[in-house]
Amino acid sequence: MSALSYVSADNNSPWKTYLSQVERVLPYLGEVSRWADTLRHPKRALIVDIPLEMDDGSVRHFEGYRVQHNLSRGPGKGGVRYHPDVTLEEVMALSAWMTVKCAALNLPFGGAKGGIRVDPRELSLKELERLTRRYTSEIGTIIGPQQDIPAPDVGTNPQVMAWMMDTWSMNTGATSTGVVTGKPVHLGGSLGRVKATGRGVFVTGRVMALRIGLPLENCRIAIQGFGNVGSVAAGLFAEAGSLITAVQDHSATLYHPDGIDIPALTEWQRQNGSISGFKGATAVNHDAFWGYDYDILIPAALEGQITAERAGKLRCRLVLEGANGPTLPVADDILRERNITVVPDVICNAGGVTVSYFEWVQDFSSFFWSEDEINIRLDHIMEQALLAVWQKSQTLKVTLRTAAYAVACERILIARKERGIYP
Ligand code: NAD
């Protein structure tokens, strides 16, 4: 294995977490493990400078990235993150998780991801548009409906995707809706896309809760992150009769032993931009979030949140990884020893990329499906993928994460082997 010169020494970085997850699956890959170095080397990483004229006439520069981790199974697929702490290494890890996720779900995509080091909340709408358009132009040479198809992630949304689609289309001279997914519905977006990731968390959670004998009725759930993923998952679990007893976002932590009114909190968050100040629950200390008794924990914010210390004191039976990379490898070991089941990110939050795949197919055929059709196909694909991974975990006697990596990495490395090395 040759180490990359551009990765940091931080052992808890998302990239190191990903590498360690790959190490764990190698013993189960058989003959194709000889190609495993492919997984440790992103195919292409582009760093771009984005000069932005601010509304007051000053100019600021932002750093942007697009990483294509692996394209053996198809065009790159993966979101774009706007967050002040984004780094190249984080985007590398997120792109690698997309490779694994698309393969685990058997979608015909490789893995990619993008990001800009920016706090979008500090920009006006016009500044955000100019930033997005310049970023799209800068990465325009490597994206495209057949090359690499961006989508929303933390800090981006359908409007950002509309600007990306328009910019790429203007630069190439023809409207090309399939260059990004997660677009507004009247611009070739898919029904069901906005809710798809949260829905996938719910669907996989329902299957796994049944497996471990945990009824959803009155089951207590804590959710970290109340954005696109967390709020939708919270709504669906609440509709199924679960009690969402704790919710945390960047601004506050709320607790209510009888369950928080999720529609009311969602409306509050929509109007105020965060959950802070909501009156229907008690505001508690940020760290208290990890100390309560729950049945299910849903991390749906950022990476590295379940540390060894938190894994040691968590009192729950099931963790549903809505976020990408929320559990450090050392914490994974502790959760396994403590018999806490983890549905890993590469399965649990794959609802978004699955409906993105539907959107891409619909854009190519210019024929659009009903929301019911989308949800039925989504639920089916997610349930089947999870059950295949469950079977694999039983056969190999490994965690669901290692089983998901076994299913996915075998597919990726077979594609790698069959395509061969050019020239
Ligand atoms: P979002 O921007 O809509 O919401 C992020 C949420 O996390 C917000 O509520 C924010 O306040 C909260 N948050 C940020 N920093 C926090 C902190 N330090 N402590 C507690 N909460 C914090 O983003 P999203 O689209 O919901 O994505 C959330 C996670 O899900 C990310 O890991 C993302 O990569 C992953 N994901 C998203 C999608 C998708 O379709 N949007 C698909 C797959 C995975």
Rounded Rg? 21 Å
**What is the CATH level 1 assignment of the domain at 194-348?**
Alpha Beta
Number of strands: 12
Q: Rough shape?
A: globular
Tell me the structural class.
alpha/beta
| CATH architectural category of the domain at 194-348 | 3-Layer(aba) Sandwich
Question: pLDDT below 50 for ≥5 consecutive residues: which ranges?
Answer: none
Helix content: 40-55%
How would you classify the quaternary structure? single chain
Q: What percentage of amino acids are in beta strands?
A: 15-25%
Task: Please give the largest β-sheet.
Answer: 7 strands, mixed
**N- and C-termini, Cα separation:** 22 Å
Per CATH, what is the topology of the domain at 194-348? Rossmann fold
Q: Give me the side-by-side strand order of the main sheet.
A: 9-8-7-6-10-11-12
Helix count, DSSP H or I runs of 4 or more residues: 13
Strand/helix succession? HEEEHEHEHHEHEEHEEHEHEHHHH
